[in-house]
Amino acid sequence: MSRLLRPLLALAIAAPALVSMAGPAVACSCVDQSFRKVVANADAVVAGHVVGEQPIDTMNTDSVLAVDGVYTGKVEATITLNANIGYGGGSSCAVLYPVGTKVDPLVLQRLDDGRYQVSVCAFPTRAEVVKLLGTARPPPPASASPSAAASSGLPPVALPPRLSWAAVIGGLLLAVGAIGLMLRWSGHRKARRQPSAIEDLQRSARRAAGG
User: Fold this and answer.
1) Which one of 2.40.50, 3.30.200, 2.30.30, 2.60.120 gives the CATH number of domain 21-140?
2) How far is CA 108 from CA 65, 71, 82, 91, 125, in A?
3) What is the mean pLDDT of residues 32-51?
């Protein structure tokens, strides 16, 4: 084997692994189709930046994409992208962008479990997308995921209704009135405990007879 063919052969053998690690990986065959058809078959076309990455198993890695704009489709403010690239290898026909990467545009296909995959055969320019779909609209507002509340196992907590000033003042007046009644009742009890003048005379007579 000639010296010229050896490095080419080594490069051909190493290419799939290099593409899988670096991303985006596009080492796969694609059917030639128009950009309009690509967009028509896509579930969403967005712009965003990668904020997290988590290996799932030896063949899959999930990354978290914060959506910066939406050209078409209905997506949440943050979505999960799945790539068939794991720490054990994986398909070379997959796309995995490193954390911190900004991508505009990104053509997505939605999976049955709610995650997305990047369309490996659709890498249009931003100018092409804007020409066909117009400028991206703002992403939807971020909100707490209902599944997160459900997974906690805690029942929803009902917040007490707001009290009006009239209710607060009325409660204070009732409390003051109740305290006044209690003080008057306590004073009457003390008054009843005091001995009368006759009782005092009887006690004095008993003391004198005893002396």
Assistant:
1) 2.40.50
2) 12, 11, 11, 18, 15
3) 90
